[in-house]
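Could you join me in thinking about how sequence relates to backbone shape in a protein? We need material for that, and I hope you will provide a protein of your own picking. Once you have written the record down, we can walk along the chain together:

…
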Amino acid sequence: MSYVYLGIAFILFWAVAYRPIKKLIIGMIDNRGDKIISDLTKARELRAEAQKILETVKEQANETETIAKQMLEDAANDVAQLKKQAERDIDAEIDRKLIDASERIARAEIVAMDNIRNKVSDIAMETVREILNDNMDSKTADKLIAGSINKLDKKLH
């Protein structure tokens, strides 16, 4: 019989304790559910924020890539312009040096021609002197010299 009383006590205990225990268990489950919902909401918000940050980063990466491409194109254009300018400068320098060399060659030719003329003139004068000394007497030489001096005097004045 003691089991019967024990069974009745057990049923009475459950009948009395069922509601508060049920409320306690349901409250704990609800609190746990609310916490899970709150965590999920936070996770969704964080995911949305991360998605926005990812889009911003992608946009910045695209902008950076575009800027880098533009910089590379600008640099390539600058290099091409610098190359063309260097080629023009080199061509101009070569032209200046060719003109300078041509002028020096022309001056050297003039000096060489003057030297040749002077040398030929000296040789001719020496030859004439030798011929005159060998073939003329002193009276004829004096007359020839006097005539030459008069002709020179007229040509110079």
